[in-house]
From TrEMBL:
It comes from Allgaiera indica. This is 2-keto-3-deoxy-L-fuconate dehydrogenase. Keywords: NAD, Oxidoreductase. Belongs to the short-chain dehydrogenases/reductases (SDR) family. GO terms for molecular function: oxidoreductase activity. The keyword NAD applies. The keyword NAD applies.
């Protein structure tokens, strides 16, 4: 695998949850990390370069990418989970989720891929979910639709650039402990019951720690013969 020492890694949504754990894991692996989030305060304490970046802001993303030097690894981690079925979903939710969960990745890749192609090497990681084309999950219509699109995006980029030194893979977690998971559980009105149900659907009988997903991100950054894959990390949910 690739030595990450000194490799430049750019990550979105690094203030909390999987993004934060991944930022810490890439720093431990010796990478030169540029950690970004819309919540600049949340990046405090990360021992790396940090920048406020709203991935919904097309101009800000273009300016941010233009100001970067060579990038070896891009980890598109930003995403939002809407609850509900197709009959409960609004067009505004669809538009917001598609913009944040899909088009924001397109913006980041458009900004960073040209430099990777010039140097003939690069690795792109996109955050999907098992709630996507991998598995139908109740009450996750908008989310699953957009996370399935992430897998199409990932395979398309992988296919177009496989012969030019670019790898592009997606990470598909099951349920992962994070601040937004706790918000979703609280929003059901019965945190304990919702948590028990989420634990029960993972055959390992527990929810993942963000650090476990971060380890997969670091692995994929080093996995020099792996591209176009949707790698599930789900405690056995999709067995
Ligand atoms: P989280 O939802 O708790 O945190 C999300 C982070 O995204 C926050 O730091 C927030 O400030 C940032 N963010 C929101 N809007 C942004 C924007 N416009 N620009 C830049 N940053 C923005 O973290 P999480 O639960 O670990 O989720 C991270 C990713 O992992 C998401 O794509 C999510 O869909 C995916 N995921 C999470 C789970 C889970 O169970 N937690 C499972 C599968 C996939």
């Amino acid at each position: 695998g690739m030595d990450l020492t000194g490799q430049v890694v750019v990550i979105t949504a690094a203030a909390q949850g999987i993004g934060r754990a991944s930022a810490e894991a890439f720093i431990r692996a010796g990478a030169r990390l540029v950690a970004t989030d819309i919540n600049a305060d949340g990046l405090a304490g990360l021992e790396c370069e940090t920048a406020r970046l709203d991935v919904l802001d097309r101009v800000a993303v273009a300016e941010f990418c233009a100001g970067l030097g060579p990038v070896d690894v891009l980890f598109n981690c930003a995403g939002f989970v809407h609850a509900g079925t197709i009959l409960e979903a609004t067009d505004d939710e669809m538009d917001f989720a598609y913009d944040l969960n899909v088009t924001a990745m397109v913006r980041m890749i458009r900004g960073i891929l040209p430099g990777m192609l010039e140097r003939g090497s690069g690795c792109i990681l996109n955050m999907s979910s098992v709630a996507s084309s991998v598995k139908g999950v109740p009450n996750r219509f908008v989310y699953s639709t957009t996370k399935a699109a992430v897998l199409g995006l990932t395979k398309s980029v992988a296919a177009d650039y496989v012969a030019r030194g670019i790898r592009c893979n997606a990470i598909c977690p099951g349920t992962v402990q994070s601040p937004s998971l706790d918000e979703r559980l609280s929003a059901t009105g019965d945190y304990d019951a919702a948590r028990a149900a989420f634990v029960a659907r993972q055959p390992m009988g527990r929810i993942a720690e963000a650090e476990e997903i971060a380890d997969l991100a670091v692995y994929l950054a080093r996995a020099t013969y792996t591209t176009g894959q949707a790698v599930c990390i789900d405690g056995g949910w999709t067995i």
